[in-house]
Amino acid sequence: MSDYSQEEVVGLLSDLIKINTSNPPGNEMEAVQYCARYLSSFGIEPKIIESSPKRANLVARIKGTGRTPFLLTGHIDTVPADERGWKFPPFSGAVQEGAVWGRGALDMKHFIAMSMVVLKELKAEGFSPKRDIILAITCDEEEGSQAGARYLVEKHPELIDAEFGLGEVGGFSMNIGGRRLYPVMTSEKGFAWLKITAEGDSGHGSMPVFRNALGRLGLAAWRLSNIPLPLHITNDASVFLKTIGDLAGIKGKFLRLLLYNLTNEIVTDNLIRNVNQKKYFRALLRNTASPAVFSGGDKVNVIPRTAYLKVDLRYLPGISLEEAVDEVREVVGDDVTIEVESYGDPVQFESRTELFDVIKRVVENEDKSAVVTPYMSPGFTDAKYFSRRKITVYGFTPLKLDGDFSYTQLIHSENERVPADSLIWGKNLLKQLVKEYCG
Ligand SMILES: [Zn+2]
């Protein structure tokens, strides 16, 4: 087993994992101060922006000579972790079995560690960039970015304004048909949190009324979880499916059939065995609506007048909120009313850009079996807020991974870890990329 004690990016990530930033409550200040000390140690003077008590963001900048700024961004908070089921405790930052273990190892303290070491190495090499390189470390992403990216964008836009940047989610390799596929996130879905309300006659439980509020609502929930919303093929989805279709041999032929109304459901239901893939391909090609909170009534012998259901609606780039809500209405019917409680628009970035070309070139150079493709994330990231400042933030945190390592399954799960070799490879690739794009 290799010795990683001399590898700065490994030690740095391990240290960051040891500082618990589980959100809620986040309490990211200590970790942010740690990063600030690290950056100061080689002459970068970061700004710490406190957004609420114990919550902070950090912005640092290496001055360039005039082209539009470039942004590297990562959130330092993580989802919580239950100690059970972990081989090494989630906040130990253990470097064991060739990996760095712990909550945040992949989501996404690894990218913060990589970015900071890249800045240090570039400084040491005397690299003088043609554009400003900005590092933005945010808090609160896992709970909606209110105190984090959103706060920066709304209160301190001058600190983060850039034309292009890199953040999550993407750049991790997946082995398909003997090649390594590197997805680069170029779009993400929007979300809308809906409150669906049903009304009916109330009364005593001993004298039932037909079609009461809970019954109406139950039917709406049943319909939403059984009837898929219509198929929509976005450009990113089509490119992504065709790319993996070409790589995946005979199985790939089936994947292409996902692009057609007539065959989509047959393929999803019968030919894709892997449950996670099934879910992803559904989310890639449709708006989705998940019933999540069901509420109404508080006494067993009283029939309530109203009941409500909270639904997590995710909608595709190119579709308006109104259109997406109409699709939900079509499924649940007129018996209930729908309100939008909060929402965030989808994000769609152009993929024919200089930065995308540089990513492709550098990755293909460093990994001869690489295939780089745009893809869409069904979740949402800080990119949603950066895009409001017209900053294109691709999801690209590079990791070259072995075939049996499942990035997507370890995120937010027990035994989250990153192979140390992949981390070092990613750091070197990121440095190469920054030098090419900013040099
Ligand atoms: Zn994340």
Give a short overview.
By secondary structure, the protein is α+β, with helices and mostly antiparallel strands. The protein has helices at residues 8-18, 29-40, 109-124, 149-155, 157-160, 213-226, 235-247, 249-256, 261-271, 275-285, 321-332, 354-366, 383-386, 407-410, 420-438, and strands at residues 47-52, 55-62, 67-75, 95-96, 99-101, 131-138, 164-167, 174-176, 179-188, 190-199, 203-204, 288-295, 302-303, 306-315, 336-344, 347-348, 370-377, 392-395, 417-419.
Could you describe the 3D structure shown?
The strands form five sheets. The protein has a six-stranded mixed beta sheet with strand order 1-2-6-3-7-18, sandwiched between helices. Strands 8, 9, 16 and 17 form a four-stranded mixed beta sheet that branches. It has a four-stranded antiparallel beta sheet with strand order 12-14-10-15, covered by helices on one side. Helix content is 36%, strand content 25%. The model has no long low-confidence stretch (mean pLDDT 94). It folds into two domains: 8-177 and 348-438, Zn peptidases (Aminopeptidase, 3-Layer(aba) Sandwich); 188-344, Alpha-Beta Plaits (2-Layer Sandwich). The two termini are 36 Å apart. It has 439 residues and is α+β, with helices and mostly antiparallel strands. The protein has helices spanning 8-18, 29-40, 109-124, 149-155, 157-160, 213-226, 235-247, 249-256, 261-271, 275-285, 321-332, 354-366, 383-386, 407-410, 420-438; strands at residues 47-52, 55-62, 67-75, 95-96, 99-101, 131-138, 164-167, 174-176, 179-188, 190-199, 203-204, 288-295, 302-303, 306-315, 336-344, 347-348, 370-377, 392-395, 417-419. Strand 8 and strand 9 form a beta hairpin. The radius of gyration is 23 Å and the shape is globular. The chain is built from 15 helices and 19 strands. Zinc ion binds next to loops. Residues 75, 107-108, 141, 168 line the site of zinc ion (ZN).
